[in-house]
Write a structure and sequence with these properties.
The protein is α/β, with parallel strands linked by helices. The chain has one domain: Histone deacetylase domain (Arginase, Chain A), CATH 3.40.800.20. The chain has 10 helices and 10 strands. β9 (236-241), α8 and β10 form a beta-alpha-beta unit. α4 packs across α5. It is globular. The structure holds zinc ion. Zinc ion (ZN) binds next to loops. The site of zinc ion (ZN) has 7 residues, from loops.
Length: 340
């Protein structure tokens, strides 16, 4: 059953700059989503988060790395990832936001949106990278695993979530599925990487060639993602929701439309409703065209509140399944693990 009011986690401190002036990972990204909700009268209720407990974060990150981040002062972890004196607190608050989202999802069996900054899916056990410091969705998935048997993560950010991928590579209880553009940052996530040891088959990478968009995503959903999810039988589904596979995004060349995004998230939500008592949550990752990001995230929130919604940016250039070969390759590889 769908809720009438959609819950979202947000905190004013998520609006601090993390990368410096003019950087695409800017506070305006979140502000645009919040104003979309107001302008479109989305019936939404805020959950105010607390910082994550260090013990929960230590299930994903090393204590050496957390100490490094806390004591870093001001500087850069790498070219893409600046550190301010408040970055550690802000990242812990984002991780706590993810926890608040899954707690609400679990208690109330309703979809919940974690509207967080900084994002998390690139952060690895020992280092932040790619605008990410603490892997919010990985921390939340680990916490959920104490309560539930199986958790699925579906990452539809245009970049491969290398941090999440690596965290759960050897785990059969946390399924990681990622669609991403092949050949861009961070360069990880080939289709042949399917997990290690007991986790073999529980990492599903679907790299896509440039220009892949609506038809390719539809094929990936129908031929791989939905069947794998159905067979895995998750107790909850977490979505790494990056808006950067959108055709308007400046950092990638995938061409997913807002309507294509909404269809993708709606199909996952429907499966969650049918198979895991509506336990799904979306975590904000990337998305750097502010209007497209607000259109994608806002329309998904409207959908979760049970409302029919119209998206604004609906140019579909991939009508012929540009990435058909990518999907076929990933499907052939995953057929060794799943009935596809
Ligand atoms: Zn991204």
């Amino acid at each position: 059953m769908r809720a009438d009011t959609v819950k979202f986690v947000h905190h004013e401190d998520y609006l601090k700059p993390t990368q410096g002036p003019g950087h695409p990972e800017c506070p305006e990204r979140l502000e645009a989503i919040i104003s979309y909700m107001e302008q479109n009268d989305i019936d939404a209720e805020r959950i105010l988060p607390e910082p994550a407990e260090k013990d929960d974060v230590l299930r994903v990150h090393s204590s050496e790395y957390l100490d490094l981040l806390r004591n870093f002062g001001r500087g850069r972890l790498d070219m893409d990832t600046a550190v301010y004196p408040y970055t550690y607190e802000m990242a812990m608050l984002a991780a706590g936001g993810g926890m608040a989202a899954v707690r609400n999802m679990l208690d109330r069996r309703e979809p919940t949106f974690a509207l967080l900054r900084p994002p998390g899916h690139h952060a690895t056990r020992d280092m932040g990278m790619g605008f990410c410091y603490i892997n919010n969705i990985a921390v939340a998935a680990e916490w959920l695993r104490k309560k539930l048997g199986r958790v699925a993560i579906v990452d539809i950010d245009v970049h491969h979530g290398n941090g999440t991928n690596d965290t759960f590579l050897d785990r059969p209880d946390i399924l990681y599925i990622s669609t991403h553009e092949w050949g861009i940052y961070p360069g990880t996530g080939p289709a042949v990487q399917t997990g290690t040891g007991m986790g073999d088959g529980y990492t599903v990478n679907i790299p896509m060639c440039g220009q892949s968009g609506d038809a390719t995503f539809r094929a990936a959903m129908e031929k791989i993602i939905l069947p794998v999810l159905s067979q895995f039988k998750p107790d909850a589904i977490l979505i790494s929701l990056g808006g950067d596979a959108h055709y308007m995004d400046p950092l990638s060349s995938l061409t997913l439309s807002s309507g294509g995004y909404l269809d993708t998230v709606t199909a996952i939500a429907k499966l969650a409703e049918e198979t895991c008592e509506n336990r799904w949550a979306a975590f904000l990752e990337g998305g750097y065209n502010i209007r497209a990001l607000a259109d994608v995230v806002g329309s998904c929130m409207a959908m979760a509140s049970g409302r029919k919604t119209e998206t604004c940016y609906n140019e579909v250039s991939d009508t012929e399944t540009v990435g058909a070969d990518s999907v076929s390759e990933a499907r052939a590889i995953q057929s060794g693990h799943w009935d596809l």
